[in-house]
Amino acid sequence: MDQYALLFASMLNAGTVLAIAALGLLINEKAGIVNLGAEGMMLCAAIAGFAAVVHTGSDWIGFLAGIGAGALLAAAFGLLVIWMNTNQYATGLALSLFGAGFSAFAGIQYVQEKLPERPHFSIPLLGDIPLIGPALFRQHPMVYLAIGLVVWLMWFLYRSRAGLVLRSVGESPESAHALGYPVRRIRLAAVIAGGALCGLSGAYISIIYTPLWVEGMVAGKGWIALALTTFATWRPARVLLGAYLFGGVTMLQFHLQGTGVEVPSEFLGMLPYVATIVVLALISRNPAWIRVNMPASLGKPFYPGT
C-alpha cells in the first residue's frame, strides 16, 4: 500500500506546479489578456530561484527570486501588449522563446551545483496516520498554499468588489472604462500578478520538485498550465482538479516504469501531452459552451480613445 500512498503524494506534488501557474494565467485571462509566455517565465524563474538558494541557502529567498523574475517579465509583456498594443499571441511566444534562451545562458554555471539538504515536512500526528498520512500530510507547505490560493481566488473573483471589477474588465473593457475604471492599469496589475504566480511555480520546480537546474527543465509544463485554463472553463476549483489530474498522468509514467511495465519510456513520457490534446479536442467539440464561460474580450486589444 505504501507505493500507492507515494503515487498519490507525487500526484499532489506534480499537480501543485501546474495549479500555481494555471491560476496565474487564469488571473490574466479573467482580465482579458492571453499570455503565451508562461513557459519562458517559468524557466527564468526556475534559474533565478535555484541560483538564489545556491548563494543564500534559503528556499524562501529562492521563491521570492522566482516571483520577482516572473513578475518582471510579465510587466515587460504587459507594457508591450497593453500600452503599445502589440499582438498578445506573438508577444507571448516571443517571451517564451526569450525565457528559454536566457535561462539556458544564465544557468550554464549552475548545471553542476547542488542545493543544501532538503527539509522534510510533516503535520504532527496527522503525518503518522497509516497510508493517509504519507499521502496527504507530509507535503511541502507550497502544496497547501496552492489549495488555499484556489479558495482565496474563488472568493476574490466572485465575492469581492475588486474581483467584480477585474471580471468586468475582461468582459467589456469599454464599459468599465466608461464607468471610470483604469482598464489598462487593472490589466497590467493582473498580468504582473499572473507572472508572479508563474514565477513561483517555476521556482518550485527547481527548488523542491526536482532540486537541480537543467536547461529546459520546465519541459512543457507552462503550455499544459495554459491549456488547463480552458480545460477548467476559467474556474479556479476546476483548475486545481485538472492540475491534479494531469499531475497524476505525469506520475503514472514513473509508477508504471517502477513496477516493470514493458512500455517504451518515450511513450510514457508522451502521456501528459497526449492527455492535454485529447482533453482540448473534447472541449472544442462544444464551442458554444466555451464562449459562455470565456471572458468576452479575451485576447482583444483595448484602445481607450475609441
Can you describe what's shown?
This protein is mainly α. The chain has a single domain, classed as Orthogonal Bundle (ABC transporter involved in vitamin B12 uptake, BtuC). The chain has helices at 2-30, 38-56, 59-83, 88-106, 132-136, 141-159, 161-171, 173-178, 183-209, 221-231, 236-258, 265-283, 287-293. The radius of gyration is 20 Å and the shape is globular.
Kindly state the mean pLDDT as a whole number? 88
How far the N terminus sits from the C terminus, by CA atoms, comes to 63 Å
How many structural domains? 1
Order of helices and strands: HHHHHHHHHHHHH
Helix/sheet category: mainly alpha
Number of strands: 0
Radius of gyration: 20 Å
CATH architecture: Orthogonal Bundle
| Share of helix, binned | over 70%
Percent of residues in β-strands: under 5%
Major sheet characteristics: none
The CATH top-level class label: Mainly Alpha
Q: Could you name the ranges where pLDDT drops below 50 across 5 or more consecutive residues?
A: none
Structural features:
membrane; transmembrane; mainly alpha; ABC transporter involved in vitamin B12 uptake, BtuC; 306 residues; transmembrane transporter activity; ABC_transp_permease; transmembrane helix
